[in-house]
């Protein structure tokens, strides 16, 4: 039976109102939400942290304000034109293949996994294959590490509550501490690598795609045989980073 809009579920209504507040302002504070909804600050804080736990909001470590989270960005993309995003990405993926001669993919982060959502395959005889629709452990993936590096430390530890990590080859990081150190390198360089960490003899380079608001929407990667990728790491990292930046500007 349909529920009349005259009888909204209060908690859902409040969550919707919080998210709609982002239409008029880039960041929300606990005091803003408290005043807007007419609730105590402690209640407003619980609402914000609940939305943060679902990746709908993300807290800035410096300002403590809450802005759009990666899940909200993905939802917006899905609602307002996922086809458009994939079309834009496909053109850049094809250009990445042309520029690098390696297979290129667009991936997103879901929990502790990456999901391949679009790709273009290299024409090299020995090459990485298309993996559209497949999933893999984020900590053993170049794109996964690029996207994990976007998360605050608290959110990273929520996703990886244990000290040990599972998945990937013997080359993949196996502890949360090692992953945190790896992600710090990603933030410094602006790109992430996978050096035979997901599969033997496969290497990849990836960079985060951020829209004009600075929200991470996904990552572009190029991958191929280990020897070939390792020998051209500087070129590949520069090329994929430039492509990720270009795609981000097209997302508005």
Automatic annotation (TrEMBL):
List GO molecular-function terms, semicolon-separated.
DNA binding; DNA-binding transcription factor activity
Tell me which UniProt keywords the record has, alphabetically.
DNA-binding, Transcription, Transcription regulation
Q: Which InterPro entries match?
A: GAF-like_dom_sf, HTH_MetabolicPath_Reg, Tscrpt_reg_IclR_C, Tscrpt_reg_IclR_N, WH-like_DNA-bd_sf, WH_DNA-bd_sf
GO terms (BP aspect): negative regulation of DNA-templated transcription
Q: Does the keyword Membrane apply?
A: no
Domain (HTH iclR-type) spans 9-70
Tell me yes or no: is Transcription regulation among this UniProt entry's keywords. yes
**Transmembrane intervals:** none
Could you tell me which residue ranges the IclR-ED domain spans? 71-252
One Pfam match, given by its short name, reads HTH_IclR
Record-given protein name: IclR family transcriptional regulator
């Amino acid at each position: 039976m349909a529920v009349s809009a005259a009888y909204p579920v209060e908690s859902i209504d409040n969550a919707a109102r919080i998210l709609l507040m982002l239409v008029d302002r880039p960041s929300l504070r606990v005091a803003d939400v408290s005043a807007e909804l007419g609730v105590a600050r402690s209640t407003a804080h619980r609402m914000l942290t609940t939305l943060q736990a679902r990746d709908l909001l993300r807290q800035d470590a410096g300002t403590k304000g809450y802005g759009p989270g990666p899940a909200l960005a993905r939802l917006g993309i899905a609602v307002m034109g996922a086809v458009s995003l994939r079309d834009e990405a496909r053109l850049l993926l094809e250009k990445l293949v042309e520029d690098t001669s390696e297979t290129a993919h667009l991936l997103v982060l879901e929990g502790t996994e990456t999901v391949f959502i679009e790709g273009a395959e290299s024409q090299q005889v020995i090459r990485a294959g298309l993996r559209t629709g497949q999933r893999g452990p984020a900590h053993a993936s170049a794109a996964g590490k690029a996207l994990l590096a976007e998360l605050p430390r608290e959110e990273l530890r929520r996703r990886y509550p244990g000290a040990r990590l599972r998945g990937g080859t013997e080359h993949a990081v196996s502890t949360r501490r090692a992953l945190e150190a790896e992600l710090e390198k990603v933030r410094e360089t602006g790109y992430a690598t996978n050096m035979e960490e997901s599969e033997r003899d496969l290497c990849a380079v990836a960079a985060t795609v951020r829209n004009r608001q600075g929200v991470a929407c996904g990552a572009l990667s190029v991958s191929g045989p280990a020897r070939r990728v390792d020998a051209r790491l500087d070129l590949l990292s520069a090329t994929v980073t430039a492509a990720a930046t270009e795609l981000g500007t097209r997302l508005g």
